[in-house]
Write a structure and sequence with these properties.
With 386 residues, the protein is mostly beta strands. Helices cover 4% and strands 53% of the residues. A five-stranded mixed sheet has the order 1-29-28-27-26, with no helix packed on it. It has a four-stranded antiparallel sheet with strand order 2-32-31-30, with no helix packed on it. A four-stranded antiparallel sheet has the order 3-4-5-6, with no helix packed on it.
């Protein structure tokens, strides 16, 4: 829709000057309001026997967290044009669900694709080697509530693992009651084992933090009505043993036996949002907050010091469960309203259209014309575009 506005010359000059000031930063995000409809070529459904709370893709392997039906690792079969032909089940483990409060809510892959991590939000994270039969191997076992997990920047022989942990009433001297910690585990990897984990944490965070997302070097955390907090995996690791840090005397490395370099998190930035933040995501210096109550997606651009340059709201009228960027495309999982697809052109976010799906918890790009959505009715594979 194009608007034609009649202005006198004086007003036109003022408007042009204001527009010039707004555009001084070439990275300022801009929303396209042009209405458009995305072309949907096909939607293929795959039954999983449970609500699909989360999907992740790594090296043509699809990870599926299927609530009380456990988790799946599926091989994605494609044709010569990279279109998905079928999914083959490599692993389906529902043995983790031994009581009514057990479930698979999130799934993550290690950076090398050798392991999958599955979150049971009440007490455990399960470790699943991809080349072995299902095996329960909790990397985290806590009596408090786990809410979200992420894999940090890691080397082949090192794993950096983050978990968001809630605390109810705690003992005197422990972390504060009704607070949240971001726990970092730095672990040695020797496939198929992960061991010798050194643990550090950022404590006394708001109890209402509920979701974390890592995009090197930033870990972003949703903070309910308080907005978003951003942490940075630093470039100056500390010398740690079981959470105890010592000084590096000669600035060369850890001279003490049993002490190891650990990449610790440091506070980087925080910002408010127009409504409760349910999910977060980042790429480059753009930080996304998926909001509740039909408030859409709030996008903030930060500079290298963590100061806010600009912000933008898109998808107003929708509540957002998940966010993903692939190449120049953005997808938003919008609960009962399906998914929204945007094209990113420089700093512009151009709406391509809405795709009707089942109630959607998660949505990830497989390539630039295929999205895999996790819904209440299983997996939906959406092929779109010309």
């Amino acid at each position: 829709m194009k608007l034609v506005i009649k202005l006198n010359y004086k007003l036109l000059f003022i408007f042009a000057f204001a527009l010039l000031q707004f555009c001084n930063s070439p990275s300022t995000p801009i929303l396209s309001t042009e209405a458009s409809t995305v072309k949907v070529n096909s939607i293929v459904n795959y039954e999983t026997g449970g609500y699909v709370r989360d999907v992740k893709i790594k090296n043509s392997i699809l990870g599926v967290a299927a609530d009380q039906n456990g988790y799946f690792l599926l091989n994605i079969n494609v044709n010569d044009s990279d279109s998905i032909l079928s999914l083959d089940t490599l692993i389906h483990n529902k043995d983790i669900v031994t009581s009514f409060d057990d479930s698979a809510y999130e799934i993550e892959f290690s950076n090398d694709g050798e392991f999958a991590f599955i979150l049971d939000p009440l007490d455990k994270v399960y470790l699943q080697p991809l080349d072995y039969d299902p095996a329960e191997f909790p990397i985290v076992t806590l009596s408090t509530l786990l809410r979200s997990i992420e894999v940090g920047s890691s080397d082949p022989d090192k794993l950096v693992f983050y978990s968001l942990v809630k605390h109810l009433e705690t003992l005197e001297g422990d972390v504060p009651s009704f607070s949240t910690s971001i726990v970092t585990q730095w672990c040695t990897v020797d496939i198929p084992y992960i061991y010798s984990c050194i643990e550090t944490s950022i404590d006394s965070l708001s109890y209402y933090q509920s979701n974390i997302s890592f995009s090197d070097p930033f870990l972003t955390s949703s903070n309910d009505q308080l907005g978003v907090e951003v942490f940075k995996q630093n470039n100056n690791p500390g010398c740690f043993n079981n959470g105890t840090e010592i000084s590096d005397i000669d600035k060369v490395g850890c001279e003490f036996m049993n002490y190891t370099w650990v990449d610790v998190l440091e506070p980087f930035s925080s910002f408010d949002t127009p409504a409760t933040t349910e999910t977060v995501y980042s790429y480059d210096n753009y930080f996304f907050a998926g909001l509740s109550d039909d408030k859409g997606c709030y996008i903030t651009l930060l500079d290298d010091n963590g100061s806010q340059i600009s912000n933008l709201s898109i998808a107003e009228g929708y509540s957002i469960n998940d966010i993903h960027v692939f190449d120049n495309y953005l997808v938003l999982a919008c609960k009962s309203d399906g998914i929204l697809i945007y094209e990113i052109a420089g700093s512009e976010f151009n709406l391509l259209g809405e795709v009707e799906t089942e109630y959607t918890y998660s949505a990830k790009f497989f390539n630039n014309n295929t999205i895999i959505a996790g819904t209440r009715q299983g997996i939906q594979i959406i092929n779109f575009g010309d």
